[in-house]
């Protein structure tokens, strides 16, 4: 009879799960952050809020047409209401999807809340974003928000 060799690891350190919430609208972003908090409960997870702001070609990336202070204050208000630690990134880019490809690691979970569609067969902007992120190979959780504004 042959023996066998067993190896016991002293401690296993898991890499933290990264949950990413793309900024869409203040209301839907808050809903996505709430859902991300629920998903991360009891896990070694970090929650990142990414505002990928598309700057038109006519403007240099260093001089976006939107006031940076306004964006920082808006993100601060959203994260304070969330009541949990959130890493905020405001990124000026020419292409929103390229920004996510560069800033979001493979294996990250992306949470997107969507408003109620005005026309059932017409996808919302958030659903289009989720579809693009899925096509790029990310794991996406789409959080439906039927109470959101919309025609019914």
Provide an overview of this structure.
The chain is of the alpha/beta class. Helix content is 32%, strand content 24%. The chain has a single domain (22-145), classed as HUPs (Rossmann fold), CATH 3.40.50.620. The protein has helices at 26-40, 68-82, 96-103, 125-135, and strands at 17-22, 45-54, 87-93, 109-115, 139-145. Strands 3-2-1-4-5 form a five-stranded parallel β-sheet, sandwiched between helices. The longest helix is centred in the N-terminal third of the chain and has 15 residues, at 26-40.
Weakly predicted, low-confidence segments: 1-8, 148-152
Give the strand content: 15-25%
Helices, by number, come to 4
Strand order of the largest sheet: 3-2-1-4-5
**Helix and strand element order:** EHEHEHEHE
Average pLDDT for all residues: 84
CA gyration radius, whole angstroms: 19 Å
